[in-house]
């Protein structure tokens, strides 16, 4: 059997691979060849790929500008390159493609031809997206308190640093509320730890129902302590929010016969507001609010201790928040 011409051998080899070979004449911007594998993948016949406009128009609109600009600039510079994009099938679906492009230049360095391969990378992209989604979920879980569902201490550290810098930059007040469940050890001793866990979850939900503005943050500080970060919130509003939290828990009438402040569960809170100065440490601010919580405990519990404010103003604002 006589040997086939070299060009026929090369074409047979190219067309037997899953990659889709193609060539473009740079001067006319026309396809001089595209492999028959294109039709099983995208549904378009090889004959329908006449000019680069066919390639552009069959690209996802969200990918088009980015990919075309990149490929043209790289080709003009004579640089081999790769591009990932979504190609439209004849029936209107999209398939992820990776184009690997070699730029051919003449003796004078002028671009004459592009030679490339298209690869179907749909499954790879799907796996990458699933992995990215999994990583996102794991990251979210790493910042979430497993018991109550609110943010954990790790997330609080991230948020307080971020809001501290924003408040310093914008010269805006930043408020913090630290809340502790009163007589919680006695609650656990009387009701048991399973009921204690449910109590923590219920208090977390009550706090979330109060701190519901877009940037308000509710987290579990540790044990039976919770923390609210309130960006762009002045002293009296922060005190009113803390008072509303206290009242919400009291109004829920969670049974607690072993409490020293009545038959229902109560909380105590410390509140602070600051406009951070450049170079100031948020740790000192957090500690000052924690000291106010301690004062609330020493003062009899079931109360809010903050900076001096007009009691009527705080009560009025707390009432407004409740409606």
UniProtKB/TrEMBL annotation:
SUPFAM superfamilies: Nucleotide cyclase (SSF55073), PYP-like sensor domain (PAS domain) (SSF55785). GO terms for molecular function: diguanylate cyclase activity. Residues 6-79 form the PAS domain. It catalyses: 2 GTP = 3',3'-c-di-GMP + 2 diphosphate. Residues 81-133 form the PAC domain. Pfam families: GGDEF (PF00990), PAS_3 (PF08447). Its EC number is 2.7.7.65. Keywords: Nucleotidyltransferase, Transferase. Residues 172-309 form the GGDEF domain. PANTHER family: DIGUANYLATE CYCLASE DGCM-RELATED, REGULATORY COMPONENTS OF SENSORY TRANSDUCTION SYSTEM. This is diguanylate cyclase. It comes from Novilysobacter selenitireducens.
